[in-house]
Amino acid sequence: MAFLIYCPGSLCRYHNNKNRKLPFCGYFRSNQIHPKHTFCRNNRSCNFPRAFLSMSLLSKEDISSSSDQKLESSSDQNCEIPVKILEEVQDSSFLRKSIMILSSIGVIDTVYLTVGKLFLTPEIMCHTQGCIEVFKSPLASIFGVPLSFLGFMAYSAVFLLSACPLLCRRKSSTFKNQLHTFSKKALSLLTLAMTIVSAFLMYILFFQIQSFCPYCVLSAFLSGSLFITSSFLHFSSVGWKKWIRHSFVVLLILASITGGALVAFGTASMTFSNQVFDPPSITSHSNARMMKLAERLKSKKARMYGAFWCEHCYHQKQMFGQEAFEKIEYVECSKNGRDSQYNLCREKDVPGYPTWEIDGELYPGEQSVEELEELAKAGN
C-alpha cells in the first residue's frame, strides 16, 4: 500500500488555508521514504523522533474519504509538537548565526589591536589619550602576551562554539544533541567571563584613567551583546517571546556594526589624512655609556632611519635616552611624520625601520648596545 506523507508544519498551515490545498511531501512505500520538499529532507537529516513523521502519515483512501472536519481534527492533534520543535530549531539557528556575526566583529577589532600592539606605536593606532594610556599601562599585556590577543582567542572560541552545531554533518542524533547542549553551556560561561573582564576594564578606563578608548568600549559592548544572545540561546524556553528576542538581537547587531564602522572610519580618516604627526617623546635619561656611544656614532656620521609610528624605533630611542639621542642624526621616513625625508629613504632603499647607516652600510633592525659598539669601533 502506498501512503502520502505530509509535512507536519504544513499540516498546521493547511488548517487555516482557505484553499485547503494538501501540503504534499512525498511517498512512503516498502519502508522507504522519498521526500520531495526541503522541509521533509531537513527533518530527516536532523533525526527527529519517528513520531514526527509517522503522525503525518495518511493513506490515499483516508484522504479521499475524509471530510474537511475530520482532517482538521487530525491536524490539530498532530501539529502542536512538531511545530514547537520546528520553532526551537529556527530560534536556535537564528541566535547562533547572530552570535557568529557579533564574534566576527570582535575578531576584527582584536586582530587590529594585536597587530598594533606588536608592530606599531600607540600614538599612530590610537587617536585618543585614553587609548594611548591603556596601551601603555601594565594591564595591556599579561606575562608578555597582549591582552587583545587573549580577546582574539576568546572571540574565535565563541565563533567556533556557535558554528559547530550548524556545520555538523554527523547523522547521529545523540551526538548532535550533546554538541548542541555542550556549546550552549560553554557559550554562556565564556561570554559571562568576557563580560566580567570587560566591565573591569571599563572601570579602569572611566574611573582611573578617566578617558575614552573607542576600541575598548566597542569590545566591551560586543562582550555584553554576546552574553545576552547566549543567554537567549541557553534559556530559549523561558523569558521573552521569540519575536521580541530576535528584534532585540537584531538591534544589538546593528549597533555593533555601526559602532565598528564609526571606529574604523575615524581611524582611517586620521591615518590617511594630511595631518603631521610628532614621534613619541623620549622619557628615559642617558648614562655615561650611552653618551660615549652616541659620540662615537656621531663621529662616524651614523644615521638612524625610522618612522614615528614604529614601536621598535621608539625602543631604540629609549635605549639611548633623551640626552644621547640628541647627538644622533635621525631621519623620519614616514610621509606624515614631522620633518619627513621620504624621498631620501627611498633613494637609500631603506628595507625597514629602524635601519642604521654606518660608514655607508645599512644595518636593518633594532640593534643592541653591544652591536652598536662593535659597529662604532669597526674601521678605527
UniProtKB/TrEMBL annotation:
Gene3D superfamilies per UniProt: Glutaredoxin, VKOR domain
CDD domains referenced in this protein's UniProt entry, alphabetically: VKOR_1
Cellular compartment(s): Membrane
UniProt domain Vitamin K epoxide reductase: residue ranges: 92-234
A Pfam family annotated for this UniProt entry: VKOR
UniProt xrefs under PROSITE patterns: GLUTAREDOXIN_2 (PS51354)
Protein name as catalogued: Vitamin K epoxide reductase domain-containing protein
Domain of life: Eukaryota
Similarity-based family: Belongs to the VKOR family.
Membrane topology: Multi-pass membrane protein
Keyword Oxidoreductase set for record: yes
Database matches in InterPro entries: Thioredoxin-like_sf, VKOR, VKOR/LTO1, VKOR_sf
Keywords, ordered alphabetically: Disulfide bond, Membrane, Oxidoreductase, Quinone, Redox-active center, Transmembrane, Transmembrane helix
Species assigned in the record: Galdieria sulphuraria
Residue ranges of the TM segments: 140-167, 187-206, 212-236, 248-272
GO MF terms held by the record: oxidoreductase activity; quinone binding
Gene Ontology terms: cellular component: membrane
